[in-house]
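Sample 1 of the test manifest.
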Amino acid sequence: MEPFNIKKLAQALNLSTSTVSRAFRDNADISAATKERILTMAREMNYQPNHYASNLREQKSRTIAIIVPELANDYFSQVIHGIERVARARDHHILIYVTDDDYEKELAFIRHLHNGRADGIIMSASGEANDHTYLKNLPHQRLPLVFFDRVYEDIACPRITTNDYDSSFQATRHLIKQGCKRIAYLAVNKNLSIGKTRMQGYIDALLKYKLPVDDQLIIDCSNSYAENSRIIKEMLQQLQPDGVFTSVERLAFATYYACYDLGISIPGELKVISFSSLEIAALLNPSLSTITQPAADIGREAARMLFRIFEDPALAGSQEELVLHSRLIKRHSSAVDF
Amino acid sequence: MEPFNIKKLAQALNLSTSTVSRAFRDNADISAATKERILTMAREMNYQPNHYASNLREQKSRTIAIIVPELANDYFSQVIHGIERVARARDHHILIYVTDDDYEKELAFIRHLHNGRADGIIMSASGEANDHTYLKNLPHQRLPLVFFDRVYEDIACPRITTNDYDSSFQATRHLIKQGCKRIAYLAVNKNLSIGKTRMQGYIDALLKYKLPVDDQLIIDCSNSYAENSRIIKEMLQQLQPDGVFTSVERLAFATYYACYDLGISIPGELKVISFSSLEIAALLNPSLSTITQPAADIGREAARMLFRIFEDPALAGSQEELVLHSRLIKRHSSAVDF
């Protein structure tokens, strides 16, 4: 089949190619009837205007890039859904990039996106990023960036976050009220601001309820499942905590597996609570108590923020922050009646 | 900051713009030293060639579109990871589109992709697609399509599948050997080929072991959680099966919730097995027996197939099929010793 092009479409309709082209660009100087006639014929012929040619003229890709540390996680898929709904309503596509928590990949993605492939970026920063000056040197007005969840404090960009300090404080207080006196805190990267904020909520709750803060019980885990399994088992055996608060859900899963292996009963001997948006938290053995972030709302607000920047590029350099609230959901993993 | 363009880069290096442009296109007629000099300077200046302009010349986007019915599912995130690894090694990007099992979205995505935004599509077809003649009219040689998992039988495209018939047969036989006599089969869309194949494996296992095939026990569920919950509870109460085999994991979750609500013990009163790649299947209460597809391998092979088509476009219209094998993993939800 010979490709159908804009010239042939114009000929078939007895119109100029520039009229047809203007119809595709939604130009206001074409009558609704003519536009309808052109689009109907185009649909019938299975014709779509060449994306790259028209983007070159408009310098717009109508694409939003989403950069996330991982995909196999209900939190990120819910955020992506939230973004997608807003994007689709405004006829934008989304591009999803997964860093596997690898800072080098994040850097490569962002550099690459600065070639016009996307109009804006919504990103949750990757765990191992310790130096990110490269981001400061990029022209954010040309390719705006909105952070969610994991942010770099020193980069001037709007951000959508949750009340992580309060949530951590509440989770720790909940374990204390359930009788825990030695609560371990498992983090992924203490250097990220979100890691620090969450840790501070944990520490302040201990102080408030006059429990000792034991540095040994604050544990920096890794991205390797095998390594975390070893770290957690060692911690459980040597330090014998009576509660564990994990900052990401995969550390709660690792804790469950470790307890199964070591024959430690949850919640009898160890109470567990985690940051998590897992939709089947109630189906776990035992059901997992969680701090659940409003993931879909976070995605929706991040997308709305990006569209506001498209309309008012000056916002790109603001540190505007929208803080949404998480919920503490008590389930069996932190129950007393076992 | 004034944007840095290719002309300024060429001036700074005292080279012609066409030499610089050829360096970015990896043209062989430039010396390695000159190329290195150009790329180093470009990196220092944070310059990337305009993606759309260079794609217009090459007519290549170096992008692979992945269309999946859902994201919040370990199977699809593992497949995407498998695709991504192959794509990245060949310096291609991936675009992810989620249909939410909605055929209209699938159609809109594919139409849109035919405008040059991607070089090829890897797709698992959406559940509700009953008429897909539109796909036959698209020029697959220009935008090749590789199916995985859920395919349309009548569309001539390469496909990566798993041994669904055998797997279903094995899962059903496993429940029979565990003592089940009334096994319900929960499907999402019986009209899709994968639904039919899986159902046939179930039916043939019943026949082979001389159990009656009761049409009432073959249940077509929906995409709505609330509706499925109602359907499954009604089925459990009215038909009193002693086994449930679910074709997708979210129906297993719905079955668990229904059993919790109705006080039906798994596996004591009801044994459950499901197609699922859930990484925490062992953490469920009780741990879930699964048929687990080699999801990452499926993604890898689908991507390799697409790159083979890029090299040999004639393959685009072949029905070449690669069949990978799933594994039956027995856990507590189908155990006898309870």
